[in-house]
Amino acid sequence: MGRGERDVVDGGRRLLEAAETLVQDHERVVEAVRAALRPLHDAAVERELDAIPVARLQEVTEGRLRLGTVEKSGLRTVAQVLGAGPYRLRQIPGVGALTADQLLAAARRLSEAAYETVAVHIDVDRPEERTTALVTALHVLVEAGPEARRAVDAAAGLRTRLGPPLEEAAPAAGRFGMLLAGRERKARVLAAVAEVREVAAEAARAGLPALIAQASVDLLRGPATDVAAWVDFELRSAEYYSLLAEITGRAPDAAAAEGFLPDGIAQRVHDQRLDDAQRRVSLRGYQAFGARFALAQGKVVLGDEMGLGKTVQAIAALAHLAGEGHRRFLVVCPPSVLVNWTREIETRSTLRTTLLHGPDRHGAFTDWTARGGVGLTTFDALRGFPAPDGADLGMFVVDEAHYVKNPEALRSQAVARWAERCDRVLFLTGTPMENRVGEFRNLVRMLDPALADALGEGDTPVGSAAFRTAVAPVYLRRNQDDVLTELPSLQHTDEWEEPSARDADAYREAVRAGNFMAMRRAAYLRPEGSAKLERLREIVREAGENGRKTVVFSVFRDVLDTVAAALAADGATVLGPLTGSVPAARRQRLVDEFAAVSGPAVLAAQIQAAGVGLNLQAASVVVLCEPQVKPTLEHQAVARAHRMGQVRPVRVHRLLTTGGVDERLVRLLENKTRLFDAYARRSAVAEASPDAVDVSDTEIARRIVEEEQARLGVRDEAGAVEAGADEAGAVEAAGAAGDAGDGIGRDEVGVEAG
Fold it and tell me: Strand, helix or coil at 58?
């Protein structure tokens, strides 16, 4: 064997050593991520198990376990059962060794499921030591880039291919290694040397030695500073989450379901039982905690950020009290949300509702007093009802409680009278109060005058932690980023509004004309009295107060103009409208300008133009001004904001008007939407092509026009059907023409309508 063979073997060994080193360096960095993730994930799983009631063990064992004595012993959650262990469980009367083993086995099954499903949430708005450790560990991999991943894969391949032939070729590395070898042995060594030479040559041609060397340098750089890592995470969160999913296979998770309450109050809330016999909805852990907080503390403000289900938490508290024998409850709210409250209570509980509103409200009040259930009324109507006597009312719920922050207002005085005479009062508001001590004090005074006095005078802002500690007995607030278990989470709310008199007049005229498109946008034709527009302004205002950006979608350009003018008059920063007539480059500039606004902002966008091809991750609140004839348009539009890279949960509000075209569209398309959803879960084609499943129907317009003309008694026998059909066809053609060449015009009728 000569020098050439020795050089080949030496070169192969250096290449193998570099490959093995890179693989080891990568494994070391990945292990650092796992080590940083482990305490976060363990804590998240523990919280999840502590939020699962012992009753769930019945489901796991198909009802074979009797858990009454277990709950009476103080073990109320799955986490507590696991923590108790077999010895303590056997000390419970009626629990023998077999039952204890079954309890623990069922609890472990839930624990294993939690470990598989619970994910860690990286909270960009509230960095702390453990999440910072995870972000900095991930930062090393993100900075190394995709080339590092390719280098590691190549290195692993080289290790597999070079290891065996290098071992066989080892005698060729020395001067005397082959002297005593036989012919057959020499042949095998020479073949191994040839294989090493071939693999090394292929690697050289592919540039693998340089790629491996650079990846090693990148992985050895170590973590960046905490600040640099956090800044990079917010800019490139999609890459961080992709790597985290690759390493763990889990989605992100969130915490702080207890609103950072002091231990004593939190324990009192945990000890509060929550009866679900008259509830028809499952609660997330933080929602169950919120309902128990209201029950345990008596008179409170639930100040959760919008989108966390304050209504559901209130209903859970009402259902619990109904299970205890309370008969009457009252909810007071703005007129615009009466419909929502009615539907939510009827859908999510067995409680009876009575609307105490309108000209017959006093008769309805008498009926409600006699028969019980949940009375639903408005702030103004409340002033005309007599306040209850003592325990006559199980709970008094005030939605949008910031409406009564002014103690001089008549509505505030009426609410205060009722609150004083009720043992349980629940104020709901999504408006943050931390920097509005004066307003908050006015609300607290209705619940706990002594605590209001303790808050002092003035309106000086206080730190969040100090504020929550001071008001913990009456105030619970959780933010989306704190408690939602998905990241990014997506929550849809149908905002049903009763049409105002002006809305109804405009709608009736559109129906008489057989104009389907005018029917769809009638709610915005007279802005001064528009119920939908008023609710939209409330949503945008609350989003702004929480520091969030909003994108408003409509199919109609004139609706967007109306919306933009109204929001600008409110002082909002409004960009757009972004419509089909705006060139593609300008559309992206609008999106960039929207993202660059340092605070809250609103982007008004035509759903066809902005629903495809643009990333709107700066927005975490989405408003759909009307339901779409083709639901795929809604899915695509929402997906512009709700996608990997979104670091905040996304809240979608679809504005709907009762009793007309919106209600008929929702009902007609409900089944087709479910079919589309089932299809979309099975194929990426659905996202790429809105026509993959055609859930639109050219007959929908004709049917709705005919039905609405008949319902309102304004049917034009001579041309109603033809007018409705012609309108649908005309606006569809206008849509295709309006966005010619853009590839989006035919996805929905009416691109240029209005």
Answer: helix
Strand, helix or coil for residue 425: strand
411 burial level (CB within 10 Å; 0-12, 13-18, 19+) = middle
SS3 track for 159-190: HHHHHHHHHHCHHHHCCCCCCCCCHHHHHHHH
Q: Using alpha carbons, select from 280, 411, 391 the residue that is nearest to residue 329.
A: 391
pLDDT of residue 647: 65
Task: Compute CA distances 176 → 4, 170, 190, 712, whole Å.
Answer: 15, 11, 15, 105
Residue range(s) occupied by CATH 3.40.50.300 in the chain? 490-747
Q: Are 382 and 403 in contact (CB under 8 A)?
A: no
The one-letter code for the residue type at 91 is: Q
Residue 676, classified by CB atoms within 10 Å of its CB into exposed (0-12), middle (13-18) or buried (19+), is: buried
What residues contact residue 485 under an 8 Å CB cut-off, 6+ apart? 118, 119, 121, 253, 254, 284
CA–CA gap between residue 178 and residue 189 (Å, rounded)? 9
- Res 250 pLDDT > 60: no
Q: Residue 166 and residue 189: Cα distance in Å, rounded?
A: 9
Question: Under CATH, which architecture does the 49-117 domain have?
Answer: Orthogonal Bundle (1.10)
Given a contact cutoff of 8 angstroms between Cβ atoms, the answer to whether 610 and 576 are in contact is no
Between helix 285-297 and helix 263-271 the angle, nearest 10°, is 100
In sequence order, the β-bridge partners of residue 354 are 375
Of the pLDDT bands very low, low, confident and very high (cuts 50, 70, 90), residue 24 is: very high
Coil vs helix vs strand at 638: helix
**Top-confidence range, 111-125, 376-390, 425-439, 640-654:** 376-390
**What whole-number percentage of the chain has pLDDT above 70?**
78
Was domain 263-483 assigned CATH 3.40.50.10810? yes
Residue 333, strand partner residues = 378
Confidence at 610, pLDDT banded by 50, 70, 90: low
Which one has a higher pLDDT value, 586 or 137? 137
Q: What CATH number should be reported for the domain whose range is 490-747? A: 3.40.50.300
Chain region(s) in the chain for CATH 1.10.150.20: 49-117
pLDDT tier for residue 751 given thresholds of 50, 70 and 90 = very low
DSSP string, 302-356: E-PPTTS-HHHHHHHHHHHHHHTT--EEEEEE-GGGHHHHHHHHHHHBS--EEE-
Q: What is the Cα–Cα distance from 523 to 507, expressed in whole angstroms?
A: 7
pLDDT (0 to 100) of residue 156: 92
